[in-house]
Input
Amino acid sequence: MAGPLASPAPRLAPRWFDVLRALEEAGAGTPSYVYDLDAMQRDASAVVAAFGDRPGNVFYAVKANSAGSIVRALAARGCGADVVSGAELLLALRCGVDPESIVYSGVAKADEELDAAIGCGDRGIRAVQAESIEEIPRIDARARAAGRIARVALRINPGVSFEELGTHAHVATGHDEAKFGIAKEDLRFALAEVDAAKSVTLCGLSSHVGSQFFRVDPYVTAARILCGIAKEVRASHPLEFLDTGGGFGVDYTGESPATPADEFVRAALDVMKREGQDDLALHVEPGRCLVAAHGVLVARVIQRKQSRARPEDRWLLIDAGMNDLIRPALYQAKHRVVPLGTTQAGASTEAWRVVGPVCESADDFGEHALPGGGFDHVALLDAGAYGYTMASRYNGRAMPGEVFVSGGRVVASLARRPMAEWANERALS
Ligand SMILES: Cc1ncc(COP(=O)(O)O)c(C=O)c1O
Output
């Protein structure tokens, strides 16, 4: 294990209310996520405002955090929903999102999921984003059976490698080997399939090339390729919109700020103008950038562990594990860990490896500079995106709790489920 870390322990930003008090007020237990709904709304408003007088173009990627309180809060600031499953679609509808403000991506949509998308509202959702040529006749058949015309966008894979994009291989989706989207070389075959489909109308082109873009350049590159493809398509087929996806980055280190999401929107609008495509609407699908920084995962310290022979080997054992927050295990992500409670500001720190209770060596949140004692809870920062939504009950662990705060008050919460629930359920299987 490495020697002592020089840096002081990071502390919760001053705007964070007392998360332990919020947990207590909600009776949520640990581990639990605590979210700041006001900050999410503020960020969503900035992205919506970047469109100026072109309303209704921000589709929040529900997969980032599907809590109803969040989907409703963002919808109240003008966000629609980008969904990737029938269940997410139903959730968005239940949260009051207008079908006209929902787009649906996904490589393997089941018939019942297509039926839900095509059948809702007066004319189905804004767009089913087809991810393969083979999906087009399937959408056509479901629309015909429903007696409707399905509005379809083609998700095009612009063929940009993750080296070009400068992002992690697991979150790069726009390269040639990706399972996502239709290869741009296959475009004419996709259009032929659209022409043959009588219950489908083509309304847009979409792409989502990856996540965690810190600078606008790779996003702009993909948007420019999409504009080029749009020119080609529009020679024979009218379009209404281009969808450049999400992927706006979030700084997990607290040291290198990412370009704000609204600047990505302005850059994409600018490319469309330069490429002569600005008569089309622009859709974007931000997820992480609206919610990640506004959620923390609060965990209790179960105990400390230290090697007697090598005292520099120290572990802080907490009650949150990779089942609650899988990003470190899946993407080698590192979330800052801060002590909560009685610790004095400026207390001296040493290197502690923060680990969870799950029986996997990957259940490891990395090494952090923390005081040797004086606290019994920690917060893992920037955990508002791809945290709860990727949580599991592996090892018989309960789903984490969730607490939603607005105006400094707990406005909704979901307690961590009791330990016996899992055992009772599994005993029946
Ligand atoms: C199709 C699609 N749109 C939008 C997003 C949101 O990406 P992010 O959370 O990085 O903004 C994703 C995430 O994987 C996605 O697959």
About this structure: The pocket of pyridoxal-5'-phosphate is lined by residues 61, 63-64, 82, 105, 208, 211, 245-248, 285-289 (CB under 6 Å). The longest strand covers residues 295-306. The CA atoms of residues 404 and 412 lie 5 Å apart. The radius of gyration is 23 Å.
